[in-house]
Amino acid sequence: MARVPLIELTTGLRPASPYHLGDGITELLPDHLARHDFDDLFLVCGEGIRDLLAEPLARRLSDAHLPVTVLTVPESEGNKSWTRLTELCERLVHAGATKQSIILALGGGMVSNLTGLAAGLLYRGVRYVDIPTTLLSLTDGTLSNKQAINGRGGKNQFGLYHAPLFVWADVAHLRTERPVNHKSGLVEAVKNGLIDDSAWFDRLAAQLTPDLAAVHDDLLGVCRQIVESKLRILATDPSERERAVILEYGHTVGHATEFLCGDLPHGVAVGIGMCLAARVGIRLGITPPEVLEKQEWVLGERLGLPTRIPPNCTPDQILNVIRTDNKRRSSEETHLILLDAIGRVHDSDGTFETPVPESVLKIVLQES
User: Fold this and answer.
1) Which domains are seen in the chain, by residue range?
2) Which residue from 200, 182, 189, 274 is spatially nearest to 230, judged by alpha carbons?
3) H or E segment and range at residue 102
4) Residues 27, 146, 296, 358: which is the catalytic one?
5) Which CA distances in Å does 335 have to 193, 300, 357, 360?
6) Is 80 a catalytic residue?
7) Cα–Cα 20 to 30 A to 10, which of 2, 142, 284, 331?
8) Whose CA is closest to 109, among 85, 86, 76?
């Protein structure tokens, strides 16, 4: 059988957490797993992809004489919860997982987060492999070693840092994903340009259209560009604790909006949050108006996505969720990533998080 080209990248973590990218590379996964010592494999997947992706992968692993047990979890953001986490941990124990096992997470960000957190907690940490099946997870979520579940009041309130043994990113999986979800993933790519690289932002914007024709014509190439745009930011801060916090641009309001709306895709919510952050920056005299204009043009016209808060999310509701945000530092103000220009984040006294009085944030929310 002809070997499929395999692109090997690194997230900069120590010990290393390699990122393997390609188109049709799933056939190479058994050989790669066989390089590691383990007693059993446990393949965790979303219910919606069990027949389409998980069972064929399980058969491929079994044919290579690698023992594997398939476990499904219900998908949707509402299932990123303590209840589902507890269930998964108990099922892994009952199925025979040990300290020497490897857990495989096959799915989007919700499955990756839930499985990664379970792996981090089980026996104080067992190895897991991330196998993303969505554009958002493949180009963004798997590059962070942050695992979390939601609380009753907000997103990602409970979690830990637990890096995968490696990431196996096969863009062939993305061809079964809905186009609206591809757009959600592309918002995070747009964000990488906005916060770090104006030239990359312009190049990407030129490829984006509502039908995503240029993206689908070169899916592997576009995905590689997006991954590399984030890896440049993570290069010196792979755990996103210092400069790489700029990757949170748009996420504070975006997470609150996503949490409240329930069915709003993550990237779409982040795009709304980015436009809100630009409006805050304009009000504070930090962000030039043309930044907002460019954002709204790319997100609204080039991708056909909303750029304003949905009418069923009130400013008070959003503020209540923000008050329990996992990055919250003060009861009097919210820290936001703001832009000085396309490709340049505002430095507020040595930090990239600018304090914004709640009164200012509420005014901008009301106007949006």
Assistant:
1) 7-176 (3.40.50.1970), 179-367 (1.20.1090.10)
2) 189
3) strand 102-107
4) 146
5) 21, 26, 9, 12
6) no
7) 2
8) 76
183 is catalytic: no
Provide the token pair at 42.
């446990």
**Residue 272: HSE in the Cβ half-sphere, 13 Å Cα cutoff:** 23
Distances in whole angstroms, Cα of residue 323 to Cα of each of 48, 154, 255: 34, 9, 12
Q: Give the model confidence (pLDDT) of 240-259 as tens digits.
A: 888 999 999 999 999 999 99
Return the pLDDT at 361. 95
In this structure, which amino acid lies at residue 193?
G
- What CA–CA distance (Å, rounded) separates 121 from 165? 15
308: amino acid identity, one letter: R
pTM of the model: 0.92
The answer to whether 278 and 295 are in contact (CB under 8 A) is: yes
pLDDT at residue 102 in the model = 98
Tokens of 90: 């108990």
Element (H, E) at 21: strand 18-22
Q: For 73, phi and psi rounded to 5 degrees?
A: -130, 145
Residue 211 in 3-state DSSP?
coil
Query: 124: how many CB neighbours lie within 10 A of its CB?
Result: 7
pLDDT tens, residue by residue, 328-344: 555 578 999 999 999 99
Query: How confident is the model over 51-68, as pLDDT tens digits?
Result: 999 999 999 999 999 999
Other beta carbons within 10 angstroms of residue 366's beta carbon come to: 11
Q: Identify the CA nearest to 185 among candidates 174, 196, 173, 194.
A: 174
